[in-house]
Fold this sequence. Notes:
The protein contains six helices and 15 strands. The chain is α+β, with helices and mostly antiparallel strands.
Amino acid sequence: xxxxxxxxxxxxxxxxxxxxxxxxxxxxxxxxxxxxxxxxxxxxxxxxxxxxxxxxxxxxxxxxxxxxxxxxxxxxxxxxxxxxxxxxxxxxxxxxxxxxxxxxxxxxxxxxxxxxxxxxxxxxxxxxxxxxxxxxxxxxxxxxxxxxxxxxxxxxxxxxxxxxxxxxxxxxxxxxxxxxxxxxxxxxxxxxxxxxxxxxxxxxxxxxxxxxxxxxxxxxxxxxxxxxxxxxxxxxxxxxxxxxxxxxxxxxxxxxxxxxxxxxxxxxxxxxxxxxxxxxxxxxxxxx
Length: 288
Ligand code: MF3
Ligand code: CO
Ligand code: CO
């Protein structure tokens, strides 16, 4: 694997899960070939996943109500942090592998892992993903969605709608005995004819006591993550969808911010899901 030029967190030095679920396709992709360790949750653990998922959804909803022109992403971060604490939970991103803030705020050409900042002030026409992950009674809930600021372009609206639908197309494949690869297959069949680039270097992931667990959940067509889904598995489906190329760049300045290589827009939606006896349950809903 050719890893030069990437920041430390990408390098997955120990080669053990959980990684930051980033793959490289140079040469043999050894991460896919490793023995995987998928934790099947028991009913007590599933209840905790539900509680964490519900709280993550609430934090995302409440934070989203504060999105408007003139607001900085740092203000959104600080709101989310205090709301999370008030509910007895912890913001999982804060200090995760050195991430400096409590949520990710990814504006326009930022694909994911945008760092909230006083200098990033929302303006009319922006699109933004807010990604919230909480730890509640030792379990993680991870969810994200897009927000629009003022009036946005018709193209941006379409990107957002198609990305949300792509997430659901993926989630609807979830049921026992289907393969993890069926998720990306379905999403790819939906998005590729529409001309989008599906991000390959970051994927969904198993989730539970750890933020990122096995299995990786690619959102594009591939035949390497072939594990079959089983009741009690919990993982995220979180397609990152680009208007143009699927290629992305990792910031060398802050070590985190991922941007589209061609500068065009990117969108993402994310839910944490549970495999049930006959299908799936979305855990990151406020109604749960
Ligand atoms: N919430 C992101 C995900 O969906 C991960 C963010 S890692 C962080 O997996 F460190 F940037 F927070
Ligand atoms: Co996630
Ligand atoms: Co997330």
